Amino acid sequence: MYVPPVYPCACGAPVVPPLMRGAPAEPITHRTWTDEWVTVRCGACGRQDQWPQPELGCPCGTVLRVPVRPVTAAASPPRPPAPGGPAGTGAKAAGPAGAPDGPAGPGIPQGTDATSSTTGVSTVRDASQPPAAARPSFNPVTIRTARDVVTAAALYLRWLGFREVVQPEERRSSVTPAVELRGPGLVAQVDPTTRPVPLRAVECLWLEGLASSSAAVYFSLAGYEETSRARADGVGLPLFVMDLTGTPQPVNTPADDLLARGA
């Protein structure tokens, strides 16, 4: 089940990219910065702004582009605010096509809870799971260059609770072009390229974490190969994929656990 991200319009109303129901998601095999943005119209004030194209990380490691209805198409009328709620808070993220309606709202099955996470992205959480520890909202850095990917990952690690996260002196590696970040009890790799992370890169980071008795975390812009994802799941290595808002998204269970408990 996929719930699109929610962005704040200049008028204060939440803006949700209108998904094209029934249209197939397309694998991202090549990224260009100018093609990763879509125009979305605010349902409250009619303002049109550029927002990142919605994406979804598949369990196999592939990153999928979720089609968005162009603003030139007929737009659905804005939904009224929820009864008793403050103005501008009644908009809901539309669920995927064919998803059953539950007590939490359209497109959300029973037993799940639609929440807005501390990263500002709408997510679906199992009602049986305890809520994540309270943290201040994460302030992402919009990704436009490879350097922005590294900056966003460093900010996210600090937000999780890791201290003194810095980039040590650059070292050339034949395994991966990823940039290394370090902190007390932490070693992280950030791959800003447009190719999925290979298995050997994940294994090397895991071994590096073991050798230094540090937590190891991987960030990637283009996702992970299937073998990389399987090995990370087996050794408990958190994997995150970066979206163009600069907000890392967990793609495996160890990453979900790290997000829930923090450093």
Provide the gyration radius in Å.
19 Å
- Which structural class do you get from the secondary structure elements? alpha+beta
Q: Determine the fraction of residues in helical runs and give it as a percent range.
A: 10-25%
Strand order of the largest sheet: 10-11-12-13-14
The first-to-last residue Cα distance is 28 Å
- Supply the number of helical segments: 4
Largest sheet: 5 strands, mixed
The total strand number stands at 14
Verbal overview:
The chain is an alpha+beta fold and 263 residues long. It has two domains: 1-131, no CATH class; 146-261, Trna Endonuclease, Chain: A, domain 1 (3-Layer(aba) Sandwich), CATH 3.40.1350. It has helices at 146-160, 199-211, 226-235, 253-261, and strands at 7-8, 14-15, 26-27, 37-41, 48-52, 55-57, 63-65, 112-116, 122-126, 179-183, 186-191, 215-220, 239-242, 248-250. The strands form five sheets. A five-stranded mixed β-sheet has the order 10-11-12-13-14, with helices on both faces. A three-stranded antiparallel β-sheet has the order 3-7-6, with no helix packed on it. A two-stranded antiparallel sheet has the order 1-2. Helix 2 packs parallel to helix 3 (226-235). The longest helix is centred in the middle third of the chain and has 15 residues, at 146-160. The protein is globular, with a radius of gyration of 19 Å.
